[in-house]
């Protein structure tokens, strides 16, 4: 795909959706406590981080992810295809790669389910945005 065909507004919106999903997914309302436990972190550890680095870095990486998925889908993808591809990428590529690492690192299954669940939804949501974008 020619980069001139890339819709940078859709990429930005997809990155923002991923970032916002993460804010809800890893919040106290959903999986924060279980995620912290699985990672071996505490709320004090979270408070000790530099939010500019964490959130800024997270958003930049979300932009890279959205950019890559947009290139993979091409211009004006069909809604069903883009959602299906997003789901398949999240499940088959990202979750499987995480799963391999988690097995060797002997990380908890609960942490794998939380993190891979986020990535499956992240890519599916991005696919939805690219499929709906005019």
From TrEMBL:
Pfam family, one: DUF1761
Protein origin, superkingdom: Bacteria
Keywords: Membrane, Transmembrane, Transmembrane helix
Segments crossing the lipid bilayer: 6-26, 53-73, 79-104, 111-133
InterPro entries cross-referenced by the UniProt entry: DUF1761
Protein's recorded name: DUF1761 domain-containing protein
């Amino acid at each position: 795909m020619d980069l001139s065909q890339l819709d940078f507004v859709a990429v930005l919106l997809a990155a923002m959706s991923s970032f916002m999903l993460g804010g809800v997914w890893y919040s106290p309302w959903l999986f924060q406590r279980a995620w912290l436990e699985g990672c071996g972190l505490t709320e004090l550890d979270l408070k000790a981080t530099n939010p500019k680095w964490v959130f800024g870095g997270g958003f930049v990486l979300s932009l890279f992810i959205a950019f890559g998925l947009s290139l993979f889908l091409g211009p004006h993808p069909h809604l069903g295809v883009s959602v299906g591809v997003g789901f398949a990428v999240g499940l088959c590529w990202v979750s499987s790669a995480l799963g391999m690492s988690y097995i060797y690192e002997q990380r908890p299954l609960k942490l794998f389910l939380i993190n891979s669940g986020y990535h499956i939804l992240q890519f599916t949501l991005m696919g939805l945005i690219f499929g709906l974008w005019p």
